[in-house]
Fold these 3 entries.
Entry 1:
Amino acid sequence: FKLPSDSFKYLSWCDIEEHDVRGNQLHCPRVREGPSEEELFFRGEEHTLKKRKQVTDTEKWQKKLQENWENCAELNLSFQDLGDLHQVENFKRILQRLIRVEKLWLVDNSLTDLSAIRLPRCRELNVNKNYFTSFKQLPKMPQIQHLSLAENNIMTLSGLSDFRHTPLESLILKRNPCEFQERYRQLVFSSLPNLKMLDGIPKLPEDCSPPDIRFFFRMCTIL
């Protein structure tokens, strides 16, 4: 059965009767809580209140088991609007369970640090439009092949060489401050010799030469 919508849009799928949808079958599930009852009333959506009910700790644990995140191979958790600490913690709890995910989208979630997360099978990660400032803040991804970090706040290329021992082939750093470094492409390819594509452009012959590091001395003569 397909999941119903509208009056059920603030409920988790395991609260809805007569469906057999599993967590790993959802294209873009929401992990944040819905509006409060008071806010729903002022929105004119009080018809959704009748579907809500109090659940015990045992029922909550059973729901977590039903989520079945461990079997997800592809998952889109973008645009989650994580405005509360509880939502962020719940979001990271789910990420920690993604032991088999291979493709993961976390676009526009205001994320700042996922260094405590390990994604052992992840081959493709999209974290565009977040607040990462360093490569050290990314999850541990020993199998990563395609990484997209566009529109973050990464200032320098420090820490990029940590991906040298991964099979990383494609990297996107568009609209990050580090993109404006002198000899940017050569520095990236120097740190990642096995990289094949940067910002959607294949590796060019001029990208293979080592960065030209020269020191200029100026002499001032005082008469």
Entry 2:
Amino acid sequence: DLRKQARQLENELDLKLVSFSKLCTSYSSTRDGRRDRYSSDTTPLLNGSSQDRMFETMAVEIEQLLGKLTGINDKMAEYTNSAGVPSLNAALMHTLQRHRDILQDYTHEFHKTKANFLAIRERENLLGSVRKDIESYKSGSGVNNRRTELFLKEHEHLRNSDRLIEETISIAMATKENMTSQRGMLKSIQSKMNTLANRFPAVNSLIQRINLRKRRDSLILGAVIGVCTILLLLYAFH
């Protein structure tokens, strides 16, 4: 029984989706034909209020059918998972998966067609507003249009001047930062050089002291060796 209901809903959905797709196609072709047939900007677009209402009605009907089919699939899943049908479980799972795939395809097709229709309608509304703006702009006097153009040009010139001033200020700030960093580097180098210059005299005096102590030690060692040598000679001859 559940499978029979699912097949019936799938057939209804198939017919509804075909009609829904034809409605969207006719909406697009009607709009395109209307624009191609009239080249004047003052020609109004075709009023699609009836098609919009039909679209909304069909979309609600298809969503309701999709919801019913989803419920039937859920009931079939519950029946498949019940403990009373273990021998037919594989066949039932295959059937359930097939109906789920069909539901997924119908849902994807519905959302795709609906998105295309909404995109076409939004584009048409945008084009209609643009045409109205053009008409309102052309309906103004030539003097006002000329003044508006002059004001727009002056405004653009002011924006360009502001942009150039901002760029100049940014370059000056970057140059100031670089010079500040270079001054800091030069100060650090100068301090290091002063430190080295102050250390060199201390190092020289230390080296001189080491040399003097080394010479004194050499003289003392030489004197000791000479005395020891003389004593040995005296001892040997006596």
Entry 3:
Amino acid sequence: MQMLMPKPQIFVERTLALIKPDVVDKEEEIEDLILRSGFSIVQKRKLQLSPEQCSNFYADQYGKMFFPNLTAYMSSGPLVAMVLARHNAVSYWKELLGPSNSLRARRTHPYSLRAIYGTDELRNGLHGSLSIFSAEREIRFMFPEVILEPIPAGQRARDYLNLYVKPTLLAGLTALCKEKPADPM
């Protein structure tokens, strides 16, 4: 009798986490909570953003009443940017953060990071990407040297194999058969 096993899947999602200027002194404590929650910290850097860089990072918030205060707050001191990885990283990180308004987080999610470290609606202590797509954009912003390769699946994977892998293998194996070297490696 043959046991049916699901095909193994290797897919580790990544998300961006920011420790904001007013709680950067709690960096070690927050990192410990992150690691104990099953995340891996893939990359980390401490930096200070200019108001212009903050405006670019939060461009989707442009035009909202709190935008000037947000950019001033985020550029007021150093922050810690981290790329977190784990299965369903975006949703688990959002859950660990809790609501964006720290006052509401204290009422509804008292053990969330924003309830613990945030002070109000604007100064909520930490940032997290809202979706996989925003995570990719935000990671590229904070870590411009990083190479984020999407993991193709389904038809995209077949197209990639047909377009890049198969022709390379075919050319290499054909050359190998023609040459018949003593040591093919």
